[in-house]
Structures
1.
Amino acid sequence: MAIRKIVQADIVRMQATKPENTSLAAAYFKNRPMHNSTHISASRIKAETGNIPVVGRGGPGVRPKHGAETMLIEPMPIEIDDTLSAVEMDEYERSTDQGKNQIIDEWTGQHYDMVRNTMNALCCQAHKGKIDYMMKTESGLQRYVVEYGTAAEIAAMSKTLGVKLSAAKYSDFVKILSEMASAIKKNGVGGPVEFIAASDVFGAMIDVVTAKANLNAGSIGDGWVMIGQFKVYQDNDSYMDQAADGTKVSKSLCGDGEIVARAVNAGQSMPFCKLDDSVQRNAVAFYTFSVDRDDHRGTDIYSKSKPFPCINIKGITWVKFAAEEASAGEGVQS
């Protein structure tokens, strides 16, 4: 007996049990349309974000040559292959209908968590103007590379400050945040701006705020702090990346000593593209199906998703505090 067909109602029921995705990186992409094609036209992305991402699989050597206005971008899917063993299938067959739903929820829920964690990681890296992430392919692990601008344009997103974090005063933080907001507006992107700081920077901000007796009690909240008129959030993202040699590295949205400012309305979006699948013909955010094994060793379960975070690099700017061994300076240096 095979596991029954997994239907959309199962996915909805499983998702209802999951906590809210609190990733600040993923929260930036509130527009998440279903895109009923395995590809996205570069001209469409350029119209929305002002730039054309370049996608490579396995490194720069495999990036296609193309005309900018006719290029079709093929995002890499997130795909998970798993197996319910014969023993687990026996438990499934002896379960009630409710018990079978619970088993399905457990397996699809694990896959859903892995897909969401990968999506969050891609969103984190997109903020830097470039995705460079290890992903599983049919031929093994490959670097999935997406560049949202030229090397010079991506480099221009970041500036190194002339002041060390340990020496930063309240007035320094206010000036830095003000300059970051102004830099985005000078890039032609208006509207409100959000700020996210690395944990060490956020801690330093808390220290300078609590040291000022004239600030009201509402200057510090759960995961945020007010610096002048600017609300700064503490980076809450964490993900694992994997090097070519298999070494796993823990990363965050913000590295030590970093602050990112991002325009709320910069045209960013995260379409979910149509999957590489012969049965599921529609674009969906998450798809799972099962196949009974011919060797009587259980049932294979597959899950797929194809999110593609699209950003406008003109709407994001970064700063990094000077290394502690460097001499302190003033202002912002390119």
2.
Amino acid sequence: MSEIASAFSAFGKKLSRFVQSDAAAPEPPLRADKLTQRKIMEADEAFSAAVAKTYAKYRFPYQMLGEHSHEARSIARDEDALVAAYRLFCAVRDANEQFGTDQTRIKDDVIASPLAGKTAYTQGGDFVYLQCWLRYEQGVTDVVPQLAQGKEGLYTLQFVPSAAFRADYKTKEITAVIQDAFYR
């Protein structure tokens, strides 16, 4: 019986040392749903970081890419082209309001722009960064620029009233990341 008592006593001492120690209990292995959740969170974080990095190039092209960067000059030219197109759109809109009538007015708000010929914008999905730059950096909130493909397959630049603009899911997601990362 004394062997049993001494075994319990030794076990009690070991147990008291373990309870008193600051060592945390080993983390249980992740269940499949937690592992999946972690992967989703990591993918979301990577997506947000990539969006923020890309938008930073549009917001600060020369600071992010360098003063002599061809890409920075290209982005700055694209921003200038977008502002010029917006000014032209506003001038036509104002002329319609001032001089047009119900029967006589400029009807199609289609603008030829070098932006409409860039694959990165027409098919690459980067036009959302210019849309956000125009909205947040230039304060243009009444309209949203968009590239529309015509019957001949060529793209044109149009300005759509903000209330009528319908962004796809990816555009909404990118815009939300940009707004959260830079403007909140």
